[in-house]
Amino acid sequence: MKAVPRILVIGGTGVFGSRLARLLRRDDFQVIVASRRLPDAQKLAYEIGAEAVALDREQDLSTILSVNADVVVDAAGPFQSYGAEPYRLIEFCISNRLHYFDLSDDAAFTSGVDRFDEDAKLARVTIISGASSVPAISAAVVADLSKQMKQIDSIESAILPGNRAPRGWSVIASILSQVGAPLRLWREGEWRLAKAWDEPQSYVLAPGIRRTARLIGAPDLELFPQRFKARSVIFRAGMELPALNGALSLYAALHRLGVVKPWRWFVSFAQSIAGATEAFGSDRGGMIVRIVGEEGNRWIERCWTLLAEAGEGPFIPATPIRAYVRKLEQLSAGARPAISDLSLNDIASATSDLAISFSVSE
C-alpha cells in the first residue's frame, strides 16, 4: 500500500460522509469524494482539496478501480435496504484487495460481515462494518469502563442529537423503517420482543440539557450480549424537540396498525419537516453509555457522557473511521464488526480537534 492511502468515500456528500471527508483531509489523506451526482462531489472536493467521481454503489463498481483507491468507505446507506445483494460492495473489495469500512447502523448487516472473514484474510485486507457511533464508539466505551468488572449486568446507550444537526435522507429512512416494528432485545439473560420507539427514558447530557429517548435498533443489541456477556443490552435514540418525538410516536402507532409505511416519498416529506424545524432547539447534542457491573465486592454503575457543541455533533459518527485509517497498518486482516479494534484513547484522539468533550461519573 502507498505511504498515504487513497480513500474513496461513497456517499461522500451526505451528512456523515462529507464530514468524514473533511476529517480525512485534515489528516492529509488522499480523498476521493464519490456521489451519484458528480457536480455535488466536485463542489465538496474543490472546497477541501480532494478528488471527485460519480459513483452509484448499486451500479457498476469498476469506477473504484479506475480512481486507484486503496480504501473504500461506504457512508451511503440506509443499510437496512441494501436489497438482495447487501454485501456486493464488500465482495468487490475483497476480490480486488481493497480495505473496506462502513457506517452501518443496521444490526443484521453489521453482524453478518464475519461470513467474509476467511476470504478477507486470504486477500490480506481489513473489512470492518459499523465503524460509527454504534457499535464502534459504544464498544470502546464499554470495554474501557468495564475492564475491572467481573461481570456486567446491563449496558444502556443513547444517542441524543441537537435539533440543528442536519438529518440526511438515509438516517430518516433508517428510523422510519423501524419505529412501531418489533424489536428483539437481550434482557435478563434471554431474548425478548419489544416495540421500536417505545419505553421513553429521560437522560441528562449536561446541567440544563435533558433529553428523552426511545427504543430503536442498533448493532449493539445483537453484538454486545456475546461480546461483553451482559445480561441486558438496551439502545435508545431521541430528538431534542418534544413535538418531533411525539410525531414519531404517532407514526409508530399508525405503523403498527398498518396504516402507514415508510414509502420513499414519505421519507422525503419527513426530511422536509426536519429541515423546516431546524432553526428551533440547539446545536448541542451527545451520547450516553451507562453500564452496571460487579467490581470487587460491590456493584457499580458507570456513566460515560459525550457532549458535542457548536454544531459538531454530526462529526461524531465519522470519527471511528478516522481512527481506523490512522492505524490502518496495525489492523489485522479479516472481516468483522467494529467492536474490538479501537480503544477509548483512539476515539479521544480522533475527536481532539472538535468541540466534543467526555466525562465519566460513577
Could you describe the 3D structure shown?
The chain is α/β, with parallel strands linked by helices. The protein has helices spanning about 15-25, 40-50, 65, 90-95, 105-110, 115-125, 135-145, 170-175, 220-230, 240-255, 265-275, 320-325, 345-350; strands spanning about 5-10, 30-35, 50-55, 70-75, 100, 125-130, 150-160, 180-185, 190-195, 200-205, 210-215, 230-235, 285-295, 300-310, 335, 355-360. The strands form 3 sheets. The protein has a 7-stranded parallel sheet, with helices on both faces. A 7-stranded mixed sheet has the order 10-11-12-7-13-14-16. The termini are far apart. About 50% of the residues are buried.
Question: What is the helix content?
Answer: 25-40%
Rg of Cα set: 20 Å
The computed structural class is alpha/beta
- Strands side by side in the biggest sheet: 3-2-1-4-5-6-15
The shape is globular
Query: If you average the pLDDT, what whole number results?
Result: 91
Strand content: 25-35%
Q: N- to C-terminal separation?
A: 44 Å
**Uncertain regions: pLDDT < 50 for 5+ in a row?**
none
Main sheet characteristics: 7 strands, parallel
Along the chain, the helix and strand elements come as EHEHEHEHEHHEHEHEEEEHEHHEEHEHE
Give me the count of strands. 16
Number of helices: 13
Strand and helix map with partners:
Layout: E1 6-10, H1 15-26, E2 30-35, H2 38-48, E3 51-54, H3 63-66, E4 71-74, H4 88-95, E5 99-102, H5 107-111, H6 117-123, E6 126-129, H7 133-145, E7 151-160, H8 169-176, E8 182-187, E9 190-195, E10 201-206, E11 209-215, H9 219-228, E12 232-237, H10 242-256, H11 264-276, E13 285-295, E14 298-308, H12 319-326, E15 334-337, H13 344-350, E16 356-361
Parallel strand pairs: 1-2, 1-4, 2-3, 4-5, 5-6, 6-15, 7-12
Antiparallel strand pairs: 7-13, 8-9, 10-11, 11-12, 13-14, 14-16
